[in-house]
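[Discussion] Sanity-checking designs against the backbone

I'm trying to build intuition for which residues belong where. Below is a structure token string of 293 positions. I'd appreciate it if someone posts a full sequence so I can compare it with mine line by line.
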């Protein structure tokens, strides 16, 4: 099975758990995801199946959108609600005005320290493994871009937010650091991803629904239409006489796309044959081929 499926990941499952379950549902061994979600987080988890796993390389730097809740009064060692408190709870009463002003410190290109309990590797070992053993991981700050971080409501101890961030940004760190800037403890209480680049929560399916559709033989109906994948690359419908050549990795001339670096090549409306790279002039060579010969 070749395609892109958008899963609405439930809380309590790792991204790997979801991949394993989708493998069982679809019978497809080649399944990958386009960006890890923490177990407590829910929402958009795009999966690529079959030959479409070759598309993952184009999503390494995909922007993501989130909605969530920050709890004030204490910090945790994981920076989220699943961790252990790092101090006694405090009585707090934060205001929307305070939070709105402080939130602006996190907008733009910022240096961010990953959480101690994260998948960042130190000498080949994930930081969370060191943290679980009581060791303090020697993490380094990394530049990320927060395009939007808006506090949408506040009740004094909890604040809801929405955010648009670059790949590699930890919302847990923002939640933790927001409290540090205010001189109080805080942690991420809830997180829901609403988009990964072009893929949105409106296109997401529950795993239970997938199982029902698979039983009814309608699983392919849940896949994203190929024309909606990688919309930043121009799309061309290949002439019939060039299809065999493209499927075998041969170069073709595409005069109408002489200025494009990469194009999506289709056979008809639905079959995505290849992502082709411009070699010179109007000559394009398949960078990846997504169908058999």
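Best answer:
Here's mine. Compare freely.
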């Amino acid at each position: 099975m070749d395609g892109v499926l958008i899963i609405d990941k439930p809380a309590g499952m790792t991204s790997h758990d979801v991949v394993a379950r989708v493998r069982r549902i679809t019978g497809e061994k080649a399944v990958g995801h386009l960006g890890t979600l923490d177990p407590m987080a829910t929402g958009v988890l795009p999966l690529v199946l079959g030959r479409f796993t070759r598309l993952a390389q184009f999503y390494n730097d995909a922007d993501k959108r989130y909605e969530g809740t920050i709890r004030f009064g204490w910090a945790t060692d994981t920076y989220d609600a699943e961790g252990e408190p790092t101090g006694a709870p405090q009585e707090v009463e934060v205001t929307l005005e305070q939070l709105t002003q402080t939130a602006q410190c996190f907008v733009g290109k910022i240096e961010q320290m990953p959480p101690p309990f994260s998948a960042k590797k130190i000498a080949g070992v994930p930081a969370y493994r060191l943290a679980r053993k009581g060791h303090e991981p020697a993490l380094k700050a990394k530049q990320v871009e927060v395009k939007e971080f808006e506090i949408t409501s506040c009740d004094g101890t909890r604040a809801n937010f929405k955010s648009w961030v670059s790949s590699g940004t930890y919302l847990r760190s923002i939640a933790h650091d927001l409290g540090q800037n205010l001189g109080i403890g805080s942690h991420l209480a809830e997180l829901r991803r609403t988009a990964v680049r072009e893929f949105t929560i409106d296109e997401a399916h529950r795993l239970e629904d997938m199982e029902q559709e698979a039983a009814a033989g309608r699983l392919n109906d849940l896949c994203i239409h190929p024309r909606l994948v990688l919309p930043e690359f121009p799309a061309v419908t290949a002439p019939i006489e060039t299809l065999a050549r493209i499927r075998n990795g041969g170069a073709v001339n595409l005069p109408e796309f002489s200025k494009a670096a990469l194009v999506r090549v289709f056979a008809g409306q639905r079959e995505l044959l290849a992502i082709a790279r411009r070699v010179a002039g109007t000559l394009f060579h398949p960078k990846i081929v997504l169908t058999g010969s």
